[in-house]
Amino acid sequence: MPQDAPQLDQDLPPQVTDHGGGVWGIKVPIPDNPLGHTLVHVLDTGRGPVLVDTGWDDPASWNTLVAGLGALGLAVADVHGVVITHHHPDHHGLSGQVREASGAWIAMHAADTEVVVRTRSAEPGVWFDYMSGKLAAAGAPEAHLAPLRAARANGRLRTLPGLRAAVPDREILPGELLPLAGRRLRAIWTPGHTPGHVCLHLEEEHPAHLPGHGRLFSGDHLLPGISPHIGLYEDPSSEQATDPLGDYLDSLERIGRLEPAEVLPAHQHAFTDAPARVRELLAHHEDRLTGLWELLAEPLTPWALAERMEWNRPWEQIPYGSRNIAVSEAEAHLRRLVKQGRAESVPGSDPVTYRAV
Ligand SMILES: [Zn+2]
Ligand SMILES: [Zn+2]
Fold first, then answer.
1. Exposure string (b/e) for 144-181, b if CB count within 10 Å is 16 or more?
2. Residue 53 CA: which ligand is closest?
3. I need a surface site. Which of 82, 118, 243, 274 has the fewest CB within 10 A?
């Protein structure tokens, strides 16, 4: 039983944290990324350890994961299952390698599995056409589109880790307990950062009896010091006007109502008082929406809006790839303002501009 798990914390290396009650965190590095690391969590179950996320697909990350498990007296071959919060490569990157080494199952929400399957089978040219079409429609200048077109024409097509991401074996069903021997881990669907993001609520009482309801593995949904990227869901085959920011805000409220005693996020560090952090993030997005609504006193394309939004540095200094992410974020905010009836597209504009209502 988990409660009887041996206490090994006296010998743990610095990248491993014992959270008590058969839960550990391993800091798995993300190469060349300001986030630094993914916190991979290990959950002891009656049938062997289960991982929540696995980390970036890179030899150094793999070695850190293996060494971290080793410090807990575990081999990768012992891993019984892998639960993935969302499909991003810093969370799902090593899942395939873990499955190969252990025979573990991999579980993911169906909406993110769909993204994995689509990305694996996508002809790279389709992606380039989709991206340049999307950016042109958002009002990107020719100078920004030219490199994309040139790359496609030269056959320099992308090689992203997502192209060989592992296809999950199991589906995580929202609201259901995962079938883990001796543990109560419930899936909470929290779309927004990705369409199939889930948080996982460990409903057992907090091992140090902190006030609140159990512990929450929050993935990228709820982080102590940063707010996750919310862009439009990228689906070349869908015409549907999804509202990821609306989804995200709803998902935040859902998590706040759970009142977990402690949050174990996938980046940064564990923290308490989830409802306060939720309120902070809701207020941040409300301020941002209002700020954008004010900018829309003059009609703007999503690109022009992104240029005027506040980022962590001036627009001129934002690198190429990050500008694409910034525009996607501007589009998600515009979509929300339109859904709220606070903005509308200007009829006949091409590329389409938006104005405040
Ligand atoms: Zn992510
Ligand atoms: Zn992440």
1. beeebeeebeeeeeeeeebeebbebebebeeeeebebe
2. 2
3. 118
Task: Please compute the mean of the pLDDT values over residues 322-342 and round it to a whole number.
Answer: 95
Q: How many angstroms separate the alpha carbon of residue 197 from the centre of ligand 2? A: 11
Contacts of 143 (CB under 8 A, 6+ apart): none
Residue with more model confidence, 162 or 175: 175
Q: Is the pLDDT of residue 9 over 70?
A: no
Q: Which residues contact 197 (CB under 8 A, 6 or more apart)?
A: 85, 86, 109, 112, 189, 190, 191, 219, 220, 221, 251
Q: Average pLDDT of 222-231?
A: 95
- Whole-number Å distance, alpha carbon 88 to ligand 2 midpoint, is 7
In percent, how much of the chain has pLDDT > 70? 94
Q: DSSP 3-state helix, strand, coil percentages of the chain (rounded to 5)?
A: 40, 15, 45
Ligand 1 center to residue 26 CA distance, Å? 17
- What is the 232 CA–ligand 1 centroid distance (Å)? 13
- Closest ligand to C-alpha of residue 196 is 1
Domain 2-114+162-278: assigned CATH number: 3.60.15.10
pLDDT digits (tens, 9 = 90+) for 11-53: 789 999 999 999 999 999 999 888 899 999 999 999 999 999 9
Query: From the CA of 115, which ligand is nearest?
Result: 1
Which ligand is closest to the CA of 162, given by its number? 1
Domain ranges of the chain: 2-114+162-278, 123-159, 293-356
Confidence at 126, pLDDT banded by 50, 70, 90: confident
Q: How far apart, in whole angstroms, are the C-alpha atoms of residue 83 and residue 108?
A: 6
Return all residues near 6 (Cβ < 8 A) that are at least 6 apart: 73
Rounded Cα–Cα distance for residues 287 and 279 (Å): 12
From ligand 1's centre to the CA of 220, what distance in Å? 5
Given pLDDT bands bounded at 50, 70 and 90, which one contains residue 162? Answer: low
Write the CB contacts of 322 (distance below 8 Å, at least 6 apart in sequence).
Answer: none
